[in-house]
Design goal:
Length: about 700
């Protein structure tokens, strides 16, 4: 019956309970092979020989500092309750000399054999001490890019699983090599750039099964024909996040591992457990590589990655059927365990003696450990033994296995290669970034092109509208100028007529002056009427004062008209209002001229009346007073004539101002035409640039396609 349940690993001291004293031994064929190998003298072609030459002496190893040689440490399990009960009258069969790194194996009370190992660990050695001397150098090598193997070999009940797979959930000091190795690895890697992945397998009855995925059984082994590297593509590989995650994986694997209750062990492992740790680390600095100068130029900038693998192997011990009492399924399991261990022993012997043929294909275990013994991995082996003399043969077999393993020298190689995957991902990211940037530039160019076309259309619309407005305004100004010229011609004609009329009035005034002089003479002659004349003069003076006031009022009105004219000059921008005001002012001036003409007609009538009065005065002296009145009227008419002349001069000045304004308007029209021509040139320039952009846009698309094809 197959027992699949979780194994609770026990400390070597705890394996001493009554009923747990069970033995694991080599089968008869393996024992005969070991005895024959021990009896043979060392071969001359062997690189090292550690077989004792006498019962009391052992030969030291050569090249102890060789990093490729398999390092072997021996660990002694303390006596348990069964040993104390059964071997109370007997001494231990082994004696340890840790300071000399030697072990003495007693055959009897007077004979013993001494063996030297790389490390000798007493029964009091702590788990931490075992890890530091056995596994830590291998773990450091694995972190440096080398493959490594840590393997435990020994009789059942001697503490292999305790040494390797103890979880230490209650007491961290009891943690085994598996947990401590992963703890060191996780502490020395960078999570961002490095990865750690694990696979946990068991070799059960020559079938490789996945302990993390029990449904996967009979996983095939693949070997690379070029490098000889062994891989298991069907095994589950889990990326380790942290130490707690790894402990969960170990618990799952231990629960799925095959174990059974035999006479030798209540929880005997019925399979070989193999923990595979894959480490991938990026090299931060440039590494010197032995390549040609041309290749160095092309590959010196490539990222370098180190890929290494750590194997931690917990072997199941072989059993003697008479001691284990295995039957049925347990018997079949024992046969396969013994067969795989026998194949491993054959490979170790062949490698130790430098045989040309290494029978690694006899078992799946030897195929999996092909790189660990005689390959490129750094290997460390710990053999566990018990002190009881009852298991002297099993202890001797275990020690001899370790001695032969120490002869093996591996060719340690650094697993370093260029990280083409990372470089490919980086280049793909750069290509995507450049493609996105080109697309963005293309879209930006299209948007700029659209904006320029929109601006050009707006400029064209604005230009056409401005041109239309300017043409309309120019036509209007030309019409206004023509109308003003006609008005000015009419005013000039009227002023000429007024000038002729004034000339006539001046002649009449001259005649009146002559008549006045004559009247003065008559006045001198007629002193009788002086008093009356004085009164009349006073009356006329009052009238003259009133006329002067009226004249001042008219001057104030003229000044207000001049102020209005200045205000009109300031508001020259509003041409239409200015023209209206000009028209109004012209109408007022025309009205004033008409008034003056009417007034002149009145004056002429008065002059006619004065002439009539003078004629009557000549006839009668009583008419002297009327002559004086006429004189005053003549003076008033003269003043009115002067005011009319002033107004005529003002009209001439206004006419000159209008001519200047016309010139100003002409200059503004010229400036506007210049601006229109500049705007036309600017529009043509923008159209030329737009044509260039339209021509360059297809070339940009071709360049984009060419860059994309090149990438």
């Amino acid at each position: 019956q197959r027992a699949e349940r979780q194994r609770s690993t026990q400390q070597p001291q705890g394996l001493s309970h009554a009923g747990n004293l069970l033995t694991r031994s080599l089968n008869n064929g393996q024992q005969s092979l070991l005895r024959s190998k021990e009896a043979k003298p060392p071969s001359a072609s062997s690189r090292r020989s550690v077989t004792p030459t006498s019962r009391s002496h052992s030969r030291d190893f050569e090249d102890d500092n060789d990093p490729g040689r398999v390092r072997v440490a021996v660990r002694l399990r303390p006596r348990n309750a069964e040993d104390l009960l059964s071997d109370a009258d007997f001494a231990d069969c082994v004696e340890l000399q840790p300071e000399l790194k030697r072990l003495k194996l007693r055959k009897n009370n007077w004979s013993s054999e001494s063996y030297k190992f790389d490390e000798v660990l007493t029964e009091t050695a702590s788990q931490k001490r075992v890890y530091e001397v056995v596994a830590k150098p291998v773990v450091e090598s694995v972190l440096g890019g080398y493959n490594g193997t840590v393997m435990a070999y020994g009789q059942t009940g001697t503490g292999k699983t305790f040494t390797l797979g103890r979880l230490g959930k209650d007491d961290a000091s009891e943690r085994g090599i598996m947990v401590r190795a992963l703890e060191d690895i996780m502490a020395n890697i960078t999570i961002a750039s490095d990865t750690v992945e694990v696979s946990y397998l068991q070799l059960y009855m020559e079938s490789i099964q996945d302990l993390l995925a029990p449904e996967k059984t009979n996983i095939p082994i693949n070997e690379d024909p070029k490098t000889g590297e062994v891989s298991l593509p069907g095994a589950v590989t889990v990326k380790v996040r942290d130490l707690d995650h790894f402990l969960e994986l170990l618990q799952i694997g231990e629960a799925n591992r095959h174990a059974a209750n035999t006479k030798l062990n209540t929880e005997s492992s019925r399979s070989h457990a193999i923990l595979m740790v894959y480490i991938r680390r990026s090299v931060p600095e440039k590494v010197e590589v032995d390549i040609s100068s041309q290749e160095k130029k092309t590959k010196s900038n490539l990222p370098v990655v180190r890929k290494s693998k750590l194997l931690i192997v917990d072997l199941a011990g072989s059993e003697r059927l008479d001691k284990s009492g295995s039957e049925g399924l347990l018997l079949e399991e024992a046969k396969f365990i013994n067969l795989s261990l026998t194949s491993l022993g054959k490979c170790i012997n062949a490698l130790a003696e430098n045989c040309p043929h290494i029978p690694t294909r006899d078992s799946k275990l030897t195929r999996l450990l092909r790189d660990s013994f005689g390959g490129s991995a750094r290997t460390s082996l710990i053999i566990t033994i018990g002190p009881s003399s009852r298991h002297h043969a099993e202890t001797t077999s275990t020690i001899m296995f370790g001695q032969r393993a120490m002869k093996i020298v591996n060719m340690v190689k650094l697993k370093e290669e260029f990280d083409y995957e990372s470089l490919c991902r980086k280049l793909e990211t750069q290509v995507d970034h450049l493609t996105a940037e080109i697309d963005r530039q293309h879209k930006l160019r299209e948007r700029d092109k659209y904006d320029l076309e929109k601006q050009l259309r707006e400029c064209q619309d604005s230009f056409y509208e401005t041109r239309k407005n300017l043409v309309t305004r120019s036509e209007f100004l030309e019409k206004e100028n023509a109308r003003l010229e006609l008005d000015m011609e009419d005013i000039l004609a009227q002023l000429n007529c007024q000038k002729d009329h004034n000339s006539l009035m001046q002649d009449k005034v001259a005649e009146l002056e002559i008549n006045l002089e004559q009247s003065k003479q008559h006045q001198l002659e007629n002193s009788t009427y002086q008093k009356v004349l004085a009164d009349t003069t006073q009356i006329y003076e009052n009238k003259i004062a009133e006329l002067i006031k009226q004249l001042e009022v008219e001057r104030a009105q003229s000044e207000s008209a001049e102020e209005q004219f200045d205000a009109m000059k300031k508001l020259s921008g509003d041409h239409q209002k200015l023209i209206k005001m000009y028209e109004k002012k012209i109408r007022e001036l025309t009205k004033q001229v008409e008034d003056e003409h009417t007034r002149f007609e009145g004056v002429q009538d008065q002059l006619d009346l004065a002439n009539k009065l003078l004629r009557d005065y000549q006839n009668s002296m009583q008419e002297q007073e009327e002559i004086s009145e006429l004189r005053l009227k003549l003076q008033e008419m003269y003043q009115l004539h002067e005011s009319t002349v002033n107004e005529l001069q003002a009209l001439k000045a206004e006419f000159k101002d209008q001519i200047q304004e016309k010139e100003t308007i002409s200059e503004e029209l010229y400036v506007v035409r210049e601006k229109l021509s500049a705007e036309e040139k600017r529009r043509k320039t923008i159209e030329h640039e737009l044509v260039k952009l339209k021509k360059s846009a297809p070339e940009g698309d071709k360049d984009f396609e060419r860059i994309k094809d090149h990438i």
